[in-house]
Amino acid sequence: MSAAKEPAAVPAPQPLQADFDPNSFVPKGFKSVRIARGDLNGDGLEDVVIVTMPDETDSEARFARRTLSIVVASPNGKFSLVSKNAMLAGCEVCGGSMGDGLADVSVSNGALTVANEGGIRARWSDVYTFKHEVALNDWVLVKYSSRVSSQIDQKWELIESTPEDFGVKRFAEIKQDDLPRATIP
Questions:
Q1: 52: in domain
Q2: Which of 62, 74, 139, 164 is least enclosed, having the fewest CB within 10 Å?
Q3: Would 40 be classed as within a structural domain?
Q4: Which long-range contacts does 49-53 make (Cβ < 8 Å, 24+ apart)?
């Protein structure tokens, strides 16, 4: 009987060049508030997701949704903005008593995950996971989960879905309200 082969390790992406300036991809009137790094398209190069929001000091800016921008590296050392979404990331105060509505933006194993959460009487979370689809040359939603739980009576609901449930949803087109959200029964 032969021993099972271990899966080949996925090499770490090449790190960003020292001269990469994420601010060169931030539009005038906006500021960068988060950056996530990792290989988003399977080419072995480190790409970047930049989260921006209006660069204003008035209280209204806190209610503006943030923009997620996918910036990919090319072998020649150049970077290109390839996709943008201004409707998915929660605002600075969208989390209610929990604070910031945008809980996480991360890149792991080629997947981009965006998590929003918040709550007052009920705590909620919506987690979106995107992967690069070579045939479409775009990032598409591959998993979505929505959870809500009552802090009063401990009731809860969880919805988990995949493209079999919602079809093809492209990163640039998806909105936070496009999919069903969990509600307390």
A1: yes
A2: 164
A3: yes
A4: 49/105, 49/107, 49/112, 50/22, 50/25, 50/26, 51/89, 51/102, 51/105, 52/26, 52/27, 53/91, 53/92
How many domains is the chain partitioned into structurally? Answer: 1
Q: What DSSP line would sit under the chain, residue for residue?
A: -PPPPPPPPPPPPBPPPTT--GGGGSPTTEEEEEEEEE-SSSSSB-EEEEEEEE---SGGGGGSPEEEEEEEE-TTS-EEEEEEEEEEE--TTTTBTT--SEEEEEEETTEEEEEEEEESSEEEEEEEEEEEETTTTEEEEEEEEEEEEETTT--EEEEEE-HHHH---BTTT--TTSS------
Do the domain assignments include residue 172? no
The pTM assigned to this predicted structure is: 0.85
In a domain, 5, yes or no: no
pLDDT in tens, 16-71: 555 678 889 998 888 899 999 999 999 999 999 999 988 876 667 767 778 999 99
Instruction: State the CB neighbour count (10 A cutoff) for residue 155.
Output: 11
